[in-house]
Predict the 3D structure of the following.
Amino acid sequence: MSLLPVVLAGGVGSRLWPLSRQLHPKQFLSLDGGLTMLQQTLGRLDGLDTQAPIVICNEEHRFLVAEQLRQIASDNRHILLEPFGRNTAPAIALAAIAATQDDDDPLLLVLAADHQVQDTAQFHDSIKKAQSLADLGYLVTFGVVPTCPETGYGYIQQGPSLGPGFGVRRFVEKPDAATATIYLESGDYLWNSGMFLFRASRYLQELERFHPDMLHACHRAMAKMEYDLDFTRIGKDAFAQCEDISVDYAVMEKTQHAAVVPLTARWSDLGAWSSIWELSDKCEAGNSYHGDVIQTDTRNTMLRSESRLVAAIGLEDLVIIETKDAVLVADRHKTQDVKKIVERLKAEGRDEFNNHRVVYRPWGRYESVDRGQRYQVKRITVNPGAKLSVQMHHHRAEHWIVVSGTAEVTNGEATYLVCENESTYIPIGRIHALKNPGTLPLELIEVQSGSYLGEDDIVRFEDQYGRV
């Protein structure tokens, strides 16, 4: 029987700020200039006998997921939306309920969308071993064979041999350095990868045993599901009754049927910039480079530039990450503490917590170029055939200047074309829309002026992306 992959694409990846943001977290980023982490996770399934995967994501990330699946020509159109995050136990329950609705009972291969696995062949081999245990009714997790006394991961202590794997003696929290060293030297402990393989019905049975209220809430939420474009929405009120709890705490630490299969596939959860430095190619001085960087007399340092020249002199053991609106400078051994900066940005309501200057929308993207009192300038890109919603603004007027391509503009009762080096004006309160009728991207400059320029000053009347 083929496997049903369940890809968990929630979370914000706060330790990879400033590259990872609330509305564009790390699973949707490309850290090496190629495929994003979500796309790599799906590509890692090639060669396995799998069904089209279920991707579970937050409501606010739905268009990012749909677009990234489209880019890799994924046949997946099963994107399950959580109205808000409730951790992994309820998310997997939703997938298991969906998987068993047609009297099917597949093996669920539960993967995080933001992990790195460098040895795909070994990864596949471990999955096949785990499959034999899952067929016997075990709930299997994958334990990474440790290579150092890591304090950033939880651990799993192996129990009795089960042939291709082991029983689980216990799960333990992230240890201090001395305890991690003891775990490593004992040879009995594995890093907890957060990946699982079990039959859908077995997970639901164990959840019924340990958290029946959660399971019943998930059933009620799925009974209210609605289909919207590529997305499946669930009942918001019912899902709100779910406890916020991980699958480890809810099921794996309590069940008598947990098993672990060792994994030696060069895995990392890329949970901090130090992890990325460790896995990166480095020069003889131990430096990792990305983008436009220059250094001299610098050692064991990560230098990443997204938009401008970054120069370093006489540095050691640092992480320097530059984006268009923020720069992080941190001790390489303390990058786990980046989350403290993110918590402060959130508490202060700063834009750098939520988004980059480049913001992605289902129709394309925009970049805030300049902003001052009563004005804002944006660079807007509209994908071929895409259309912004029919909308109006109470507090701002807009002036559009087409840089390349052709725009189809609805301005009140009139609809007309605006070509390169031409412009048009949308007064305050005027119903309007913008479409790219061509086969090339439409690029334009938007100049907003008015008393309030927030993104929430949008009244939508029609929208082909279901945002009305």
Observations:
- The chain has a mean pLDDT of 94.
- The CA atoms of residues 292 and 301 lie 15 Å apart.
